[in-house]
Amino acid sequence: MWHQTLPQFVSETEGVEEIGRLIEAHVRLVAGDHPEVDEWDLYNEAPGALKPHTPADNPVRRWMEGAGGAGPATERLMAVAREANPKARYALNHYDGLDPAYHEQIRYLLSRGVDFGAIGIQSHMHRQGDIWTEQRMWEMLESYAGYGRPIQLTEVTVLSSEPFTDWRELQAFEKWLRAARREDRPGLARPSTPEGEDYQARYARDFYTLAFSHPSVDAIIWWSLSDMNDWRGSAGGLLDAQGEPKPVYDALAKLIKEEWWTIVEAEADAEGRVSFRGFYGDYRLTVPYDDGERAAEFSLRQGGAAEQRLTVAPAGATAKGGAGGDD
């Protein structure tokens, strides 16, 4: 759910109770009819509905104020979502990690025992003042870690084009961009540069490394796949406007698929034991035999068993494995 994008029939609805009924019906529809989706942003930017830039006649704002604020409104939505799809994971999400209202929303839900799955923090770095320093990032993560919920960096944008100076400049550009797209004119007016691409790659690598090092962070989600039709007309993609990988793509691929990808070759002892230390995730064990390769699969999970017993089977057969562990 998001208060800034609403169907016309919702915008034209007057009664707060009817608005609430429509909202709950929408949550039941998307969560209940799509059980294959096991993770949801329950309410996107809930504290933002009460900000000055959300008109007072906005239907969702009126419904939220009637419910008692962002916390109680989210509690109601969570109850409906849980009823529709009890197995899914429901996360909070907000564009401003420094917003005191977001902390208030989280504290309210915790005090009521509401079982939300994660705390989402956006980081769209389109303006110079939006760029996170290492200290700012770490202090923000620490401030949310105390709530005892996983943290997700839900919307990461790092530009390889020139950042905007301030909010006024960004708003003026977005106005121009909307007009350009209505007239089917090219919308990417802030192109990627070689210097910007070098910066984007180095910054993204540092950003991911610092986030990955924090024990509360369990997800990092890059926002724009490519520079083509970027939502704010800037170069924030992993690919350029032609769909070719940029340096940031290669930097993150090397970091994730090589440095953070546990690949071990070892010989078992006389009792068939092998020990190693690896990152959490899913693993495939292969053992060479005279008649070909045998395989088994297992997982390493936080809090899981440190020892696993596996039975290797011929390639193509079903292997038997134990519970997850960390060694």
Sequence-ordered SSE layout with sheet pairings:
Elements (H helix, E strand, L loop, with lengths): L7 H4 L4 H17 L6 E6 L14 H9 L2 H15 L4 E6 L5 H12 L6 E8 L8 H12 L5 E8 L8 H16 L11 H20 L3 E6 L1 E3 L10 E3 L7 H13 L21 E9 L2 E9 L12 E2 L13
Parallel strand pairs: 1-2, 2-3, 3-4, 4-5, 6-7
Antiparallel strand pairs: 8-9, 9-10
Helix pairs in contact: 2-3, 2-4, 4-5, 8-9
Descriptors for this entry?
TIM Barrel, 36% helix, 327 residues, 3-stranded antiparallel beta sheet, alpha/beta, 5-stranded parallel beta sheet
Q: What report would you give on this structure?
A:
The relative contact order is 0.07. The protein is built from nine helices and ten strands. The radius of gyration is 24 Å and the shape is globular. By secondary structure, the chain is α/β, with parallel strands linked by helices.
Query: Going across the major beta sheet, what is the strand order?
Result: 1-2-3-4-5
The appropriate CATH architecture of the largest domain is Alpha-Beta Barrel
Using the CA coordinates, give the radius of gyration.
Answer: 24 Å
Residue share in helix: 25-40%
